[in-house]
UniProtKB/TrEMBL annotation:
Keywords: DNA-binding. It comes from Nocardiopsis composta. One of its GO terms (molecular function) is DNA binding. SMART domains: HTH_MARR (SM00347). This is DNA-binding MarR family transcriptional regulator. GO terms for biological process: response to stress.
Amino acid sequence: MDAVAASGGEVVFREFLSAIVLNAQAIADRLGLRLIDVQAAHLVTQAGPLTAGALAERLGTPTATTTRVIDRLERAGYVRRVRDPHDRRRVAVEAVPGGMGEADAMFEPTRRHLAALGERYTPEQVALMFDMFTFVTRAFKDATAEIRRGGEGR
């Protein structure tokens, strides 16, 4: 981040991150959910069925907190608990087909505003940005894991 900080880009980058978080919070607010609930719903939608323990690990929350998240999402109709057909003691959380329609619709303004990328930049530049997003995503996941471990890994 030294090159970014030296160029004054750190301010822009922090504003970028803040805009993303506040956008997600606004969506959560409109849905009557918490930000962690929206993130959990996305994780289940992207990864497929997850046990509460696996979801807790990905969210970085205690299992009791994750259980409350699952309860809220289940009440809202976004996810459901299903028993493993091979081990009835195991329960997974899966997205309800079509259940994310309302939540997905809340992202429409974000999608619409981001569509302007195609008007402002060439297809090659857009591809480069998405490559950068992939790199930044991995960097944030790695940093998050390091922070949760207590900062080890430097």
